[in-house]
Hints:
Layout: H1 3-6, H2 13-19, H3 46-50, H4 64-77, E1 81-85, H5 88-99, E2 105-109, H6 114-126, E3 130-134, E4 150-156, H7 168-174, E5 181-185, H8 190-193, E6 203-206, E7 221-225, H9 230-236, H10 245-256, H11 258-277, E8 284-286, H12 296-302, E9 309-314, H13 319-327, E10 344-348, E11 364-369, H14 375-392
Parallel strand pairs: 2-3, 2-4, 4-5, 5-6
Antiparallel strand pairs: 1-7, 6-7, 8-9, 9-11, 10-11
Helix pairs in contact: 4-10, 5-9, 13-14
Amino acid sequence: MKNNEIGAAGLSxxxxxxxxxxxxxxxxxxxxxxxxxxxxxxxxxxxxxxDYKSAYRYGRFDNPTMRSVEALISELEGAxxxxxxxxxxxxxxxxxxxxxxxGDEVLVTDSCYDPTRNLCTGTLKRLGISTTFYDPRxxxxxxSLITDRTKAIFVESPGSLxxxxxxxxxxxAAVKGxxxxxxxxxxWATPLYYRPLELGADIVLHxxxxxxxxxxxxxxxxxSANARTWPALLKTRQLGINASPDDSxxxxxxxxxxxxxxxxxxxxxxxxxxxxxxQPDVTRVYHPALPSxxxxxxWKRDYTGSGSLFAFELPPAxxxxxxxxxxxxxxxxxxxxxxxxxxxxxxxxxxxIRTATEWANEGSMFRIHVGLEGIDDLKADMxxxxxRFMAAR
Length: 393
């Protein structure tokens, strides 16, 4: 079907993912949009070159492969427009630079992805932009941190190591009537399970490397904006930070199965988290969909599902015990990304990076992504790993 034949009104996300952003009738019948490689786009006449009415002008910013993914994601997000980036961090950079300038201030959750923190305290600081980190559970209290220089609030919900769920509606209400952009990193839940723009955010971004691509074989990012911030985002795109046609095609492939993968990975992760919570040596599990999570009520109110990533804690132990645990995995692997078919588990240290809030928990913390292996096999692998950890304490 052509995009203009289906529209998105009344259709499920599964149907949008399957049909939107492709046009076989305009691609010689091929069901998927081909990968368009090219930098130069030629014009037939001088009038055509100068009137800016042609569909495409230069390969850096746009081609049919990239545009098809942008259209699909804009429909899912309910956005006025989307730009593609070569990584999640590039997407974060584009989002922040589109609304901030010298002399401005950004409020950033203290539970943010560590490269986001480094971007703020490094590059943005050199550009004359200051950062204030805030307690991820501050909610409406964020009003006390807003100054005349505050131009953006950066929300990551849940936090990528400690999994606090932020009260986005309360934050949005606190900035109502002000020229402050609310930016949300929604990589964990995706627009299938969380809709920040509908809750009042201005910009939503994704480390598309994770759930969108879904196969651990491409770096990718997306930034989607509402009508108020879309012109600024489109202008900032002139920095030339763009995804390649090849990576865009891999993202388009991954998006076709996003709903199925999210449903399966979400269920597996919650089953693993529930099982871990029952293990006698596990001191705490950080998964927002568990009733024991401090922010479960906010998650239940604002989300329709959960992601594949969560954390758990074991008793304090020396590094040798952590090494004994992770070095002996049969199925879980150690890796910094997530969202693919393979299960991952890494030790984490949030206490080393917090600045606005103290991470006082003294246990040994691990972040886990549950992949597509047999869930009983994963439980057996983790059970043996915990036994090695406890024996080495």
